[in-house]
Amino acid sequence: MSLVVANWKMHKTAPEVEEFCRRFPEEIAGLSGVDIVLAPAFPFLSAARDPEARWSVAGQNCSAEPSGAFTGEVSAGMLASAGCAYVLVGHSERRRYFGEEDVVLGFKVERARQAGLVPIFCVGETLHERDAGLTDEVLDRQLSALDEDLLEAPLVVAYEPVWAIGTGHNATPEQAGEALARICRRLSKRSDLRTIYGGSVTPENAEFLIEQRRIEGFLVGGSSLDPQSFAVICRRSTRRAPA
Ligand code: PGA
């Protein structure tokens, strides 16, 4: 079963979310073998839920605090009560623009667990780090935020090289496969791990990226905004060559 997540970031107003959810079901009619997740902005979590459970919803972020006087924050418990099954933790835009570091991300994972949400934990190196040969070191450091997490709890790790996000330059299957192999080795004691790839995934490249055996699905930004193109990615993620 593959996993394909739409990360809508700070896109879509209420009518646009409604329109997507109205058109999407016919685009995915008859599709099986893929868990589909939509991550809209917080105000539209309820609107994006599917009463027929053909997809689930995720928060794009959660607070590192459980509750309290933290104006503007949204807790993992609130996300769960709004119907979320997953939450993105450590997206590179959170790390880069909001200064989220490994320690705080460890707390967010803990909050997600307490609320019964599955974290979609995002890791990935910058171009500068890749060029300097630091990819493995960066991934290991980012994954250290999971050191205190329960080994048997379900976890999704998204490998999203920063240089591939929103740039139109996706990683090659070999590059993604190598990084995901490193991630799997680092997390080898975990019993319920799914590994996905994100960064300029399109309907065109999804077809060959999914052939890489460690890519079990995708985290999709730009190409997830349109129901038709996102549905094509969902369909293609199920077309894995026989092992
Ligand atoms: P992109 O974004 O598909 O637009 O590159 C991916 C992401 O940031 O999760």
Structure notes:
The protein is of the alpha/beta class and about 240 residues long. Helices cover about 35% and strands about 20% of the residues. The chain has ten helices and eight strands. Strands 1-2-3-4-5-6-7-8 form an eight-stranded parallel beta barrel, surrounded by four helices. Helix 7 crosses helix 8 (about 175-185) and helix 9 (about 205-210) packs parallel to helix 10. The longest helix has 14 residues, at about 15-25. It is globular and about 45 Å long. The mean pLDDT is about 95.
> What is the average per-residue confidence, as pLDDT, rounded to a whole number?
96
Strand content: 15-25%
Radius of gyration: 17 Å
* Shape estimate: globular
- Oligomer type: single chain
Spatial sequence of strands, sheet with the most strands:
1-2-3-4-5-6-7-8
Helix and strand pattern: EHEHEHEHHEHHEHEHEH
Low-confidence stretches are none
Head-to-tail CA distance between termini: 14 Å
* Class from helix and strand fractions: alpha/beta
List ligands, each type once: 2-phosphoglycolic acid
Number of strands: 8
For the sheet with most strands, the description reads: 8 strands, parallel, barrel
The residue fraction in helices comes out at 25-40%
